[in-house]
């Protein structure tokens, strides 16, 4: 049974990411709209804490407004204004180790029989429950490094989650302000730190494009249906960004293979 929290202090709106409407800080907690998926997500987060993983918020229940209550993670979100925090290769390697520790902890999670998930995009396969948006807009860097925004967790695979992480943390971007000459080296650093074997590295490379293009296609399809906030994202150019990034990533497939295998 969930604990019901009653508010007694000021609410401070929290910005960041692409979908943060209604997310507020109350003291040392975060409140955000709950959904049918919330019980499953809280079960997952409880599991992570029970096995010693501390890189995720801890669920504390539901407040009197029906919002989920999570522990607040103090620190900076790297994207887009603090990406310098991830510039050093040792910091990027820490992301890779964090992702591996997270996936290893998730691999021991048994979802409730009645679990309902809110994953937006179908993954390549159902291997374990994954975050589905490991990215610099969902990481808080402070005394602890904490992966936030678990609403879209659901069935997926390690490589699917890692492909998305590579897009954001390397980053694998077509935009001239973010495109990097050292992208191959940074991808290698991330993957080495995660600990993929040779075959997994080969399998990861095509997923770098597939996962990025899947986000473009999701935005396109949701915009056609008029579903918010995705229709607004599409109208304001997010789809163009994801398409360009997918094209860039695909055009450099041989570069990524060479970086990971040589």
UniProtKB/TrEMBL annotation:
Record keyword Transferase present: yes
Keyword line: Transferase
Domain Aminoglycoside phosphotransferase: 115-194
GO molecular function: transferase activity
Keyword Transferase in record: yes
Entries under InterPro entries matching the protein: Aminoglycoside_PTrfase, Kinase-like_dom_sf
Name used for this protein in its record: Phosphotransferase enzyme family protein
Organism field: Micromonospora humi
